[in-house]
Structures are given as C-alpha cells and as structure tokens.
Amino acid sequence: MEKKLLTLLLSIVVALSLASFSAADVHAQVGTIYSKYTTSEPDLDGTIHASEWADAICYENVGEDGKFTIYLMHGDDFFYIGLKIKDSTHNVDDWISITFDEGDDGGHGSGSGDGVLTDKQEDWKGITGDGDLIDGYWDTKGTLSEFWYPGFGVSVDFEAAIDYHVNRWEVEFKIPFQGNDGDPKDPSDLNIAVDDAPRMEIDLRDIPAGFIVYPEDSDYKDPSTYVELKFDNEPPTISGVSYAPTTPTPDDEVMVFASVTDDVSGLKSVTLLYSIDGGATWSSVTMTKFVSIETGEEKYKAEIPRQASGTTVQFKVSAEDNVFFSAESAVASYTVKTLIFGMEPILFYGLIIGLVVAILIVVVVIVLTRRPRPPAAPPTPPAPPVAPAVAYCPHCGAPVKPGDVYCPKCGQKLK
Taking phi first (over 0 means left), then psi (-120 to 50 degrees means alpha), and beta for anything else, what does residue 245 get? Predict the structure, then answer.
C-alpha cells in the first residue's frame, strides 16, 4: 500500500491549535510521567485486567476532558502501555496513536526536546478501532511535513490489541525498546534505553468528534508539548542510619537519622517505624528532610518519644518512591537505661567498688609504712684489754713471769 498522508490529522490538529493559541501556550514544557519495572507481561486482548496491570503506574482521568486513564510499565526489552479512553460512540474508523520524541539518547530524533522534528525520524504507532496496526514516522515532503505510514500492518515492530467496552476504548501496546531503524518502508522505530527520557503524546481520533489528546493542549508537531517519560527500575536507597543519644535514658527523646535517595521518580515518603514489643506492632513517624551542617548532604530525621527504663526499642527506616517501589533498612535497637552521673548503674557501682578497693589498699600501705619499730639494741662495747695474769712463787710469794721455771727470788722450782 502506498504511503498515506494523514491529512485529516493535520487539518484537525492545526484547527485546534489555532483555536486554542490565545488560551494556552502549547509550546510550554509539561510534566513527567513514570513507567515502573515489572517481570510480568500482560495478555494483549484489548481488556485491561487489574491483575495483569497490577505493577503498572496508573494516571487516571488525565488529558483533554479527563478522558484518558493510562497504565505504564516495562520489562527488560519491552514497554507496555495500557489505555482506557472514554468515547460514547463505537466507531471502527476511530484510531488511537502514540507519538514519541526519542529525546536525548545520542542518536535519534530531535534529541533535546526543542520541538524540531527531524526528517525520517521520530516514531509513531497506532491501532484502528477494528485492530489494524499502524507503524509510521515523521517525514518531510516539500513544504508539507507530517507523520507518514506505509500502510496498515506494514513494517510493524510492535504488538497491540483494542476492544470497545460500553463507553470507552481499551487498548494494550507492547513496544520494543529497540526497534528496526533503517527499514526502507519505516526508517524510524523507537530506539531508547531505560535510562533515556523520551517524550510522548497520545491521540484518539474520535469520529465524528475530532481529536482528543494527552497531554491536554499538546501539539503532535511540537515534541516540547509532549509529556516526559521516565523509566524507574529501582527502589529507594537507604543508608547511614544512626541515632542520638547512643545511650538513651528515660528523659531522652531519640533522634534517628538516615540518608535516603531515589534517582528516577523521586521520593514520595520516608517513614521511621519503631516497636517497643519486640516487633509485634510498629508505630510510624514521618521523617523530614534537612541539610547536614557538617557535610552539606540532604538527610532525613524523626524522633522516637521517651520510653521507660529497661525498654528495648527496635526501629527501621522505610521509603517509597513515586512509582510505589519501597525499601526498608535493617532493624536496629537500643535499650533505655537510668544513668547515675551519666554512667550506667553497673558501671557506676563498679567504679565505686573499684575506688573503695583502691582506697583500702592505699590505707593499708600507709599504715604498714608508718608502724613504729622496736628500739635497736645498743652496740656491744669492746672488751677491755685483758691484764696479763700475775703469778706468784708458791714458796716465797715473790711475783714470777709467765714462762719462768724457777722463782727468781728463792730459786725454788715453780710448779
């Protein structure tokens, strides 16, 4: 089938743009929506079952006239979009399409979201009310630029299903992150990674009402009016959990601190949970953000109320991001104690006993060193010289010298 120019699309959107130009700046940047990682895959049957889309992020009653409810989730290789679009009339000539500005991914599309559509780039995917798939791209011919497609079912690299339910269309898309760029019949397919941030617009061509768009007031020719799309794969990160004072008393509230970050969708809530009954029940306190004076780092804090002496308090930090990924820190604990002069009783009394023992030892040493000693015995005087013995002669009584054999006076022999 020959390429078909979407003339109806062009004329209606141009008319809508001109009619609304004075009321709204269609070139203004709009917000960001998020897709959440899942390991499950929906069954593409044109009916959005709650169980199959339970992991998706849902944006309800958004877009022009609040007619869109959008479900977004992704796996490792595919991006899943579920749509409920209010439409009071069932017409198989209606179609739903999704236009992508592939964004700043280094090689495709306008890159910076500056509103400039590049020839034979940017991706456009759609499905008609009777289930025909359309895979197109932006093309420039002479003075007329438009999204083109080679024909229904031609060069289609995605899957989709549609069904009408009483008062709305339900549509399910399965789109590969990496398409088949370079096909001569469809030179641009989606080529992104989960760390890219493409922009996206959704249209319902509702016959006979005209075009209904998401985001509201968007212009499919101007990617800067599309909504930014980000892919969230990870829960928040919690680190550096601490508390003060580290030895709480019954008079102390305990402040808990934590570093909590989320790189994609951002933090929705950070909560301190604490238990005083061994984890049977948990009380919650919302943690508030502050900037650390010491490091300049953003942190979160919350206070645990005073508890009675002897109470063991368990606590943990819980965080949830804007795609409802959640994380919890490990459980920490402390026991409330009554202190004496800033010390635990066992330490205080141990110190007192130690001091008493030390004092007793010092006293004993002093007593022993100061005990009086018995007086020392006077020194023994030296023995007087021994006078030589005087001998007398037994015969005459005259003195004789030692060694004399005969008395020098009477001549008698001495005994």
Answer: beta
The domain containing residue 107 runs over which residues?
Answer: 4-232
The pLDDT value given to residue 395? 78
Q: Please name which of 96, 251, 116, 216 lies closest in space to residue 158, comparing C-alpha atoms.
A: 96
Main-chain phi, psi angles of 168, to 5 degrees: -160, 160
Residue 31 Rama label (left phi>0; alpha psi -120 to 50; beta): beta
pTM greater than the 0.85 cutoff? no
What distance in Å separates the CA atoms of residue 273 and residue 283, rounded to the nearest whole number? 6
How many residues appear in the chain? 415
Residues 244 and 137: their CA atoms lie apart, in Å, by: 60
CB-count burial class (<10 Å; 0-12, 13-18, 19+) for 145: middle
* CA geometry: angle 371, 377, 382, nearest 5 deg: 155
The yes-or-no verdict on residue 20 having pLDDT over 60 is no
Alpha-carbon gap, residue 412 to 260, rounded angstroms: 136
Query: How far lies 228's CA from each of 100, 104, 112, 146, 264, in Å?
Result: 10, 11, 12, 22, 12
Q: CA-CA distance, 14 to 6, in Å (whole number)?
A: 12
pLDDT score of 84:
97
Structural domain ending residue among the three candidates 335, 361, 386: 335
Query: What's the Rg (C-alpha) of the chain?
Result: 50
Last residue of a domain, one of 211, 232, 253: 232
